[in-house]
Amino acid sequence: MADKQPKPTPMSRRRALLAGGAALTGAAALATPAIAQGAPRTIRLATSWPEGLGGLADSAARVAETINAGSNGRLNVETYWAGSLVPALGVHDAAQNGEIEMYHAAEYYFQGKHRGFNFFTTVPLGLTTPEQASWIKYGGGQELWDELAADFNVKSFACGGTGIQMGGWFNKEIKSMADFEGLTMRMPGLGAQVISRLGANAVVLPGGGIVEALFEGTIDATEWVGPYNDLHFGLQKLLTNYLYPGFHEPGTMASIGFNLDFWNSLEEQDRVLIETIADAELTLHTADFYGNNSLALVQLQKESGITPSKLPDDVWDELSRVSFEVTASVAEDDDMGRRIVESYESYRQLIGSAGAISQAEYLAMRGAEDLFADV
To answer: In whole angstroms, what is the distance from residue 196 CA to residue 5 CA?
Structure first.
């Protein structure tokens, strides 16, 4: 029996209505007849997130609700939280094999199938969230993603970004590269390969397993997005060395994916509806993280006395050097990897050049208040 979907918070419901409104506008012109005939098609949606996790779980619930409402009864998405139907990191396999029709996750969890999947979530020293969305939508990223995912019988879309992440929580200060030697840290994606090259032990855990691993002492450090979700997990109660910025995830993108056979079997109006909802969620989910990360950072300071520390410049420089090496190495895996890297790197150079005289200079000249100046 399918799990009942949790009721969204009032804020989530407002965002769902906004997303639903945009989706319904497009669907109304496409839907014929106006009232769906027959039983709805069931879509089993498995997530990589624990129930109730702000931002990510909210997004999965909102996507499900909006598809249900926007399809006018043709589709019925049933949401299963991490581990309730399939393992949190096994949702791609489940979609590929037809055990589920849909997932909500992050593509870098699937790099064991092909390291190219990292580029459709984030890579170290890579694109920021707006830049990542631009590459996907207008730089050829979606076409490469479609080609790669089709090899695994999956069709995927971007549905949100978390922004530039924090560097993580550590059980000791990080003053030099020597402090990474022997450190066991929860980190996914290509970032894990970077710290492994530098002497650390990288462990990939789903969000729901982080706190338990810290309590058991099986990891010494962890990263997980930023203050918004860190407060949810209570990481500030377990570790006090909070570092920034995150070299490993500058523009982490969430995704929804479908079993490709199921996707191709949908009516065109429903494929268009789902793509429209994914585009709306790309905005809503990103706005959620940008706003709530800022609020949570202030809360961490005021309620817990946490003062994030900036990574030393020499540490950042070494992490950057190895990050570029690891990212470039994906081009050596196969032709698919080469084409993804070439497209991504070309876009990073293009959009980075513009950013240097627009965003970077603007933010520097606008200035910013130091939240921790009086701590």
So the answer is: 39
